[in-house]
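User: I need a structural model of Trehalose corynomycolyl transferase B from Corynebacterium lactis RW2-5 for a docking pre-check later this week. Nothing fancy, just the predicted structure tokens so I can convert them on my end. Input:
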Amino acid sequence: MSFTAVSRSFMAKVIAALVAVALVIGGVVLATAKDASADPNRDRLRPGCEWDPYNWWVQYCQVHSGVMERDIPVQIKAATGGGDASLYMLDGLYGYNKGASGWIWSGNIAQTFANDNITLVAPAAGDASFYADWNAPAVTRDGVKIQKWETFLTQELPVYLQNEFGVNPSRNAIAGLSMGASAAMSTAARHRDQFKHVTALSGYYQLSNPVVAAGTTAMVATTGVVNPTAMWGLPIPASPERMAHDPSKLFNELQGLPMYISSANGVPSLWSDPEVLKRPVPQLPDTVWRSVMESISRASTQQFERDARAAGLNATFAYSPNGIHSWETWSRDAALARPSILAALGL
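Assistant: Understood. Predicted structure tokens for Trehalose corynomycolyl transferase B:
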């Protein structure tokens, strides 16, 4: 064999070897990229659930509540990485709709925590309930409903989450907005063994104050609840149940609990309400109502901060310069609370 032939044979073998190495390396890179995007915990659909049309790995699950005698829709995004921590999220008075959570569809919370090792838990259909155990069933437009939300959130739902999503019942954070803000705070205060952090956005905290008590009772009635006093009795005088769920009366129970509490000032802006300049005149009352509600929340939050500081609580209070009672405000504030939530859970 000539030198030239030997050289060609050698070069062919070198090229073949380089191609083989490239294919191996390429295969490793492709496999790594695929493994990075896939997650066996986040991608696995649980029994009784279906993939939510919102996407972002959100599952739409029906969780049976024996104490409320009905299935409760809960939207859940499993932790990325198989972690055992979770974040419960409570909606406001009017909810989003009867079968979905505003945190998912309007707050885009699944995107905010898309790659975090935390399970997102968003119960739906809790509108006008204050997420409490009512003294009597609620009479509503849709019939008579047993309202035992605190029992569901702290006893029934944790069992389901542990069995199906691997969530540790003692390693949770809880967030709420508007009505859900005070509910998140009182739930965490009354169940310190379960919750390690509270996020409260645009809330109302002096629930046993006569004016606030009368206002919240009236607001529940506006949702179609015929007997709003079935929750905690008459607004005046404050019942023991109302006092027990009033965050401003729970400072001892809240000691040492990390909290992120925020509100805006009720002033519309292009950030908090990007459609404000294009909104037709008939829709302006909604903007005015949202401005008023956020202004009241600001006053309530500031009073709660004064009382909390005096009681020795070291919560984080954040006041947005502009914003109304809207998902534009809450979505932004939830993203700002994210580092605090993850840190409290050791993530």
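Before docking, keep this in mind: The chain has two domains: 1-38, 49-344.
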